[in-house]
Specification:
Length: about 325
């Protein structure tokens, strides 16, 4: 486990140095002006005043820059530590479970019922590992600068329904706990991107729902063809100060070792990137009743034509490498 560095030391030291430099700068200006007013030959003072002020301002800017760089480094260190802790847990738990199941099956004569129970548990662990590896591969593939996607016209509500079915099957979740309000909506975009997007969002909605779980999925289409999808659960709300941060890569709220939910902090990062390259956006809200989390996905209207169908759209992902993605 990587050590988690504290922000207290660089922040305290940086703020103290900045305050001292500001005091020195103000003192330099006052002393120079006072001396210039007292002396008859003031030319040297009026030369030293801007020169010294410029030098002190440069030092002040350098200290401020170093403070920002230090804070950024600590934040990166924390994200790396969280990621390693999460991946270690996500890999170790299912592997240990599979190993125990295989050893039990090898050493004991199990009944058909027990054999089926162990097999089912191991299949679930394998699916968990497969999901983790898929997330890591998806996140890694976003670094490709010349990523090509295929845009096509599809039925939006059908894609949503298929994603709901897949995620409910994976979590053994009762589909009747999800209230779905959709309608026939045609859209032109990369359908594979939206399958990944909504599987990740629905996966989070189920994982972080309350007891008893209650999830709603609403699809609305405006007159201009723009689409809004709202996915809401009744779990714990994401604090407002952390709603932008959770879309960063490997970023999760809280301390990794204190979490009870699986994940490595890649789902929302992937969602945001795929929506951005499809000219969409995503944000988190707290529902009107005050509990749970609502995820709002907004997509612009797309002009559809015969020439557009099945054409390849080249997407340059430079924003990812330059850190310009907006959460």
């Amino acid at each position: 486990m990587l050590p988690r560095r504290s922000l207290a030391v660089p922040l305290s030291l940086g703020i103290t140095m900045i305050c001292l430099l500001i005091m020195v700068l103000i003192g330099w200006i006052l002393v120079t002006v006072f001396a210039a007013l007292k002396e008859t030959d003031t030319s040297i003072y009026w030369v030293l005043l801007p020169l010294g002020t410029f030098i002190l301002c440069c030092v002040l800017a350098g200290v401020a820059f170093y403070l920002a760089f230090s804070v950024k480094s600590v934040q990166v260190n924390r994200r790396q530590a969280n990621f390693i802790d999460a991946v270690t847990h996500e890999l170790k738990s299912p592997i240990a479970s599979i190993k125990l199941g295989l050893e039990t099956m090898a050493r004991r004569q199990l009944s058909e019922k027990d054999m089926g129970m162990f097999t089912s548990a191991m299949k679930k662990d394998v699916r968990r590992l497969d999901r983790l590896i898929s997330h890591l591969l998806q996140a890694a593939s976003l670094n490709v600068e010349n990523d090509e996607i295929v845009a096509e016209e599809f039925e939006f509500s059908k894609v949503l329904d298929e994603c709901i079915t897949d995620v409910c099957t994976y979590h053994a979740f009762d589909k009747t706990n999800i209230e779905v309000r959709t309608g026939p909506t045609r859209y032109f975009a990369a359908v594979m991107d939206f399958e990944i997007i909504f599987r990740n969002l629905l996966d989070n909605a189920i994982k972080y729902s309350g007891t008893p779980p209650k999830i709603s999925v609403n699809l609305d289409e405006a007159n201009d063809g723009s689409i809004t999808v709202a996915i809401e659960n009744n779990g714990t709300s994401v604090p407002e100060a952390e709603r932008d941060r959770v879309f960063n890569r490997f970023e999760r709220t809280g301390i990794e070792l204190e979490r009870t939910k699986p994940g490595v902090g890649l789902g929302l990062f992937i969602v945001r990137f795929l929506l951005k390259r499809n000219r969409g956006s995503v944000r988190l809200e707290t529902p009107e009743h005050g509990g749970g989390t609502r995820v709002i996905v907004e997509l612009p209207g797309m002009k559809k034509s015969v020439k557009q169908k099945q054409r390849k759209v080249k997407v340059v992902a430079k924003e990812l490498n330059n850190g310009q993605l907006v959460g």
